[in-house]
């Protein structure tokens, strides 16, 4: 009798405990895929990416790419397609209920370089290559549009899928789209850029505030006076003037910019002369300047101009200077960043979402902040050559996570 009672007691205690353990395992799986994940056209995303990669087009010339994107968008249900600029495309998905308007942006242009990969779908165009990953950006956003187009009844608000031209060439395509007026009423902008040497499929949340740098460029012609190499007293050597300018510019970062504020002044071009025994009459310099705040950007520009002016006068030379402001720094919004992080963790798991370091590159995505707050993030694509390298490649296994993150960010933003 005692044995029977002990057996019944064991069954009574262990039964509920086993059920509770099973239930705990089920409810604890926060990263189980929602039902919409099965609607992601994973194979199509890769097909779209490879087609665009194989048929790259340079900035402001993305005519065939634009047509291709338009055709693909029109094959999805519930999406209206507009053309805000000659080679850009916007897909608009209106939800079943009114609400906010959110935009996700991808860029479509390629770079002027010869591809040096062995991919079976390598570029067919001579000296044109998708070496920055814009083919992947476009394909991922098409995948996002395809997935959400089947979920119209679940959406409160409107989604803009922006396929932008000419990110690589200032003044950039974002300004054209903004000036078209097509984006009036957008409440938030999100963007995603692939980066190598981060785990494939991991999403990086860039910092709040300056998420990238602003870039300015200058082109300088120093006009001296030519002479024979044996008679330097009869000339004004532009190489000596240029060397003094290059040396002095190094003090801008070390002695003028507030310590701790990221600033880079890079002289990328210094050309002069044709013969070893001739003092040239001209020298050409060109530089890239990177800053993160408007205050420092203005300060650095003024200091560079002062240095060039004073040194050329001191040597008796003259100069022609073209100082070209290009893209401002992306300023990530704190609330949108927190939103993007929460959504990405929710769909991918916290182990696949990380704090990305500030990009030292520049992006015309920054201009969308003229309309509404922005948040820019990264998508890891595995080990490999850097962006803008002729051997650049993309681990395509990362693309599905890109779609997942984008869809979840949009869903959460509209339905919160």
UniProtKB/TrEMBL annotation:
Keyword annotations: Hydrolase, Signal
Pfam families named among the record's database cross-references: M20_dimer, Peptidase_M20
InterPro entries: Amidohydrolase, Bact_exopeptidase_dim_dom, Peptidase_M20, Peptidase_M20_dimer
Entry superkingdom: Bacteria
Annotated ranges, domain Peptidase M20 dimerisation: 218-314
PANTHER family: METALLOPEPTIDASE, PUTATIVE (AFU_ORTHOLOGUE AFUA_6G09600)-RELATED, PEPTIDASE M20 FAMILY MEMBER
Protein name: N-acyl-L-amino acid amidohydrolase
Keyword presence, Glycoprotein: no
Region forming the signal peptide: 1-19
């Amino acid at each position: 009798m005692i044995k029977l009672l002990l057996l019944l007691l064991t069954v009574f205690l262990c039964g509920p405990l086993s059920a509770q353990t099973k239930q705990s395992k089920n409810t604890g799986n926060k990263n189980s895929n929602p039902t919409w994940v099965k609607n992601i056209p994973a194979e199509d995303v890769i097909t779209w990416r490879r087609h665009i990669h194989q048929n790259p087009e340079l900035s402001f010339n993305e005519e065939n790419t634009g047509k291709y994107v338009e055709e693909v968008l029109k094959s999805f249900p519930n999406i209206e397609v507009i053309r805000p600029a000659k080679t850009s495309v916007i897909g608009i998905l209106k939800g079943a209920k009114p609400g906010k308007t959110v935009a996700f942006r991808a860029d479509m242009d390629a770079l002027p370089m010869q591809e040096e990969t062995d991919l079976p779908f390598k570029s067919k165009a001579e000296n044109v290559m998708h070496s920055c990953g814009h083919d992947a950006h476009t394909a991922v956003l098409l995948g996002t549009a395809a997935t959400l187009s089947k979920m119209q009844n679940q959406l409160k608000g409107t989604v803009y899928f922006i396929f932008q031209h000419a990110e690589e060439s200032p003044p950039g395509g974002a300004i054209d789209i903004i000036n078209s007026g097509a984006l009036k009423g957008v409440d938030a902008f999100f963007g995603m850029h692939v980066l190598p040497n981060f785990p494939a499929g991991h999403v990086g949340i860039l910092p709040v505030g300056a998420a990238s740098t602003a870039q300015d460029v200058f082109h300088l012609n120093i006009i001296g006076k030519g002479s024979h190499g044996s008679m330097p007293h009869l000339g004004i050597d532009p190489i000596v003037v240029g060397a003094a300018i290059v040396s002095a510019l190094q003090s801008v970062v070390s002695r003028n910019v507030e310590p701790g504020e990221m600033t880079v002044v890079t002289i990328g071009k210094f050309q002069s002369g044709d013969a070893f025994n001739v003092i040239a009459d001209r020298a050409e310099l060109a530089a890239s300047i990177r800053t993160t705040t408007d205050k420092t950007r203005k300060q650095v520009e003024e200091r560079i101009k002062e240095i060039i002016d004073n040194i050329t006068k001191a040597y008796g030379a003259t100069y022609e200077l073209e100082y070209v402001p290009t893209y401002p720094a992306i300023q990530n919004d704190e609330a949108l960043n927190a939103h993007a992080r929460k959504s990405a963790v929710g769909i991918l798991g916290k182990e696949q979402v990380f704090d990305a370091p500030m990009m030292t590159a520049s992006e015309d995505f920054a201009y969308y902040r003229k309309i509404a707050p922005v948040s820019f993030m990264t998508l890891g694509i595995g080990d490999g050559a850097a962006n803008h390298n002729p051997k650049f490649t993309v681990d395509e296994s990362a693309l599905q996570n890109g779609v997942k993150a984008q869809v979840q960010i949009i869903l959460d933003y509209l339905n919160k």
